[in-house]
Amino acid sequence: MAANQLFTTLNNGVIMPLLGLGVYDVYGREAEQAIGYALETGYRLIDTAAMYRNEVEVGNAIRAGRIPRHELFVTTKVDNADQGYDTTLRAFDQSLKALSCDYVDLYLIHWPLKSSRKQTWNALEKLYAEGRVRAVGVANYLLPFLKELAGHATLVPAVNQIEFSPYLFLEEELTYCQTNHIVLQAYSPLIRGRRFDDPKLRQLAEQYGKTPAQILLRWALQLGVSTIPKSATPSRIRENFDVFDFSISADDMVRLRDFHENFRVVEDPIELL
Length: 273
Fold this sequence. Notes:
Blueprint (H helix, E strand, L loop, with lengths): L6 E3 L5 E3 L3 E2 L5 H14 L3 E3 L7 H11 L7 E6 L6 H15 L6 E4 L7 H13 L6 E4 L3 H8 L8 E5 L7 H9 L3 E5 L11 H10 L3 H11 L3 E2 L6 H8 L8 H8 L16
Parallel strand pairs: 3-4, 4-5, 5-6, 6-7, 7-8, 8-9, 9-10
Antiparallel strand pairs: 1-2
Helix pairs in contact: 1-2, 1-9, 2-3, 3-4
Protein name: Aldo/keto reductase
InterPro entries: AKR, Aldo/ket_reductase_CS, NAD(P)_OxRdtase_dom_sf, NADP_OxRdtase_dom
Keywords: NADP, Oxidoreductase
């Protein structure tokens, strides 16, 4: 199934799958089983974070899956409590140990904390310069944070991971990222199922013979947006990966953009300004 996957090229030439598995709020044996099933299904991108407290389980599942490490793309993030220059460097070492990996494919600032985000970014640049991470980026960086970062960073972030869906269509962030060769990555792309009963979405799902979840994921992929739906249920993991055998028409892509209602399931990062 992995051959069906779509990929994108980051601004430093690294290849990243567009579709991955998020493992927020999944722990212990359940996390290991979910990741194992995802790898069997064809997923090659696994997105975790120190804040999720499951990096050990991610590492266990990767080893058990027996897929060559170079075929996988592993993302983790520095915890808010560890932000700052020296503390980020120590936190990265702890994440590597927990993951039992020699390197991380993508390391992100999890939230743009006002007091420490600049120093934290400097630490990420150091890790990248040392070859300990293949790419560095940010998460929850809305436009003001991106513009601030551009004013002091040496590197352009490879990825910006934000909450993004047709119901939270952040056009300014999407345009900025595309213009500056930053891959936008959507977390909570399925809005935790809270709009699956929307008649507009259900009509499109029936039209394409797909589920509401598959419509939302395919929409993101066709925009060139990476997406990391979270699930621990084998049937849903499989359903979320079954999005490579159809395309949404240009007119319907526009219709989906018009679903925007500024609907969030996670707090608004702008409050951190």
